[in-house]
From TrEMBL:
Keywords: Coiled coil, Glycosyltransferase, Golgi apparatus, Manganese, Membrane, Metal-binding, Signal-anchor, Transferase, Transmembrane, Transmembrane helix. Its EC number is 2.4.1.101. PANTHER family: ALPHA-1,3-MANNOSYL-GLYCOPROTEIN 2-BETA-N-ACETYLGLUCOSAMINYLTRANSFERASE, PROTEIN O-LINKED-MANNOSE BETA-1,2-N-ACETYLGLUCOSAMINYLTRANSFERASE 1/ALPHA-1,3-MANNOSYL-GLYCOPROTEIN 2-BETA-N-ACETYLGLUCOSAMINYLTRANSFERASE. The chain crosses the membrane at residues 12-30. The keyword Manganese applies. It catalyses: N(4)-(alpha-D-Man-(1->3)-[alpha-D-Man-(1->3)-[alpha-D-Man-(1->6)]-alpha-D-Man-(1->6)]-beta-D-Man-(1->4)-beta-D-GlcNAc-(1->4)-beta-D-GlcNAc)-L-asparaginyl-[protein] (N-glucan mannose isomer 5A1,2) + UDP-N-acetyl-alpha-D-glucosamine = N(4)-{beta-D-GlcNAc-(1->2)-alpha-D-Man-(1->3)-[alpha-D-Man-(1->3)-[alpha-D-Man-(1->6)]-alpha-D-Man-(1->6)]-beta-D-Man-(1->4)-beta-D-GlcNAc-(1->4)-beta-D-GlcNAc}-L-asparaginyl-[protein] + UDP + H(+). It is found in: Golgi apparatus membrane. One of its GO terms (molecular function) is alpha-1,3-mannosylglycoprotein 2-beta-N-acetylglucosaminyltransferase activity. Residues 60-94 form a coiled coil. InterPro entries: Glyco_trans_13, Glycosyltransferase_13, Nucleotide-diphossugar_trans. This is Alpha-1,3-mannosyl-glycoprotein 2-beta-N-acetylglucosaminyltransferase. Pathway: Protein modification; protein glycosylation. Initiates complex N-linked carbohydrate formation. Essential for the conversion of high-mannose to hybrid and complex N-glycans.
Length: 296
């Protein structure tokens, strides 16, 4: 009887132990599930934080790039201002304002378009001044430099007989077609700037444009003075040019003959202010002489 009671007590204890064990396991499982959820939430929060940190780093990098670009732009502008201040001082020291103010009714301004070839430019200047000196009041001479080549600038400023202009353009060039040379775009910008300066700022009625590698003939200025009358009378004439590809001695029969052509030869040509008023608003980004040829 005692043995049966003992067995019953043992089974009861085993059941109680099993129930307790199951309860403990269930609590452990519930606790583990909570910790697992918290861990997953923590990992997700960490990933989000990492993503936000990377995004912030990218934004900081972009801002740093913009700051560097602005600093570079400020440096270019400071350089441009220093060059312009130096130029104004040089011009004032040479009395250029008085020189221009004393010119009475010039036939045309003469501008030599230059960039970085000081040796060529020096030969051209000497050629011009050789014949321009007796008629200086009729043909004031300008040198328009594109860029900041120091040799060209120093050479131009060494002559009291001419006025130096400097075209500084720091805007990036975007070509319209792949493989194009940006030089054609810079040349177009330089020509437009120089002609705007001479026609609008200095208010010349005519401008003679020369390249920096040309030498003029003895009758150069007489020719353009006669051509100026034709340019004023006949509005169908776009420009007066002193260049002829066939103008060599062996091909010329009459040195006094004057020909009219529908082909624009360039290279030493005179343009009127009224014609420039038509061309300037539609001046192309590159290859400007194609526009002049079509207009002519």
């Amino acid at each position: 009887m005692r043995g049966n009671k003992f067995c019953c007590d043992l089974r009861y204890l085993l059941i109680m132990a099993a129930v307790a064990f199951i309860y403990i396991q269930m609590r452990l499982f519930a606790t583990q599930s909570q910790y697992a959820d918290r861990l997953a939430a923590a990992i997700e929060a960490e990933n989000h934080c990492t993503s936000q940190t990377r995004l912030l780093i990218d934004q900081i990098s972009q801002q740093q790039g913009r700051v560097m670009a602005l600093e570079e732009q400020m440096k270019r502008q400071d350089q441009e201002c220093r060059q312009l201040r130096t130029l104004v001082q040089d011009l004032e020291s040479k009395g250029i304002k008085k020189l221009i103010g004393d010119v009475q009714m010039p036939v045309a301004a003469v501008v030599v378009m230059a960039c970085n070839r000081a040796d060529y430019l020096e030969r051209t200047i000497k050629s011009i001044l050789k014949y321009q000196t007796p008629v200086a009041s009729k043909y004031p001479v300008f040198i328009s430099q594109d860029g900041s080549n120091p040799d060209v600038r120093k050479l131009a400023l060494s002559y009291d007989q001419l006025t130096y202009m400097q075209h500084l353009d720091f805007e990036p060039v975007h070509t319209e077609r792949p493989g194009e040379l940006i030089a054609y775009y810079k040349i177009a910008r330089h020509y437009k700037w120089a002609l705007d300066q001479l026609f609008h700022k200095h208010n010349f009625s005519r401008v003679i444009i020369l390249e920096d590698d040309m030498e003029i003939a003895a009758d150069f200025f007489d020719y353009f003075e006669a051509g100026a009358t034709l340019l004023d009378r006949d509005k169908s004439i776009m420009a007066i040019s002193s260049w002829n590809d066939n103008g060599q001695r062996q091909f010329v029969q009459d040195p006094y003959a004057l020909y009219r052509s529908d082909f624009f030869p360039g290279l030493g040509w005179m343009l009127s202010k009224s014609t420039w008023a038509e061309l300037s608003p539609k001046w192309p980004k590159a290859y400007p002489f194609q526009l002049i040829g079509m207009t002519g």
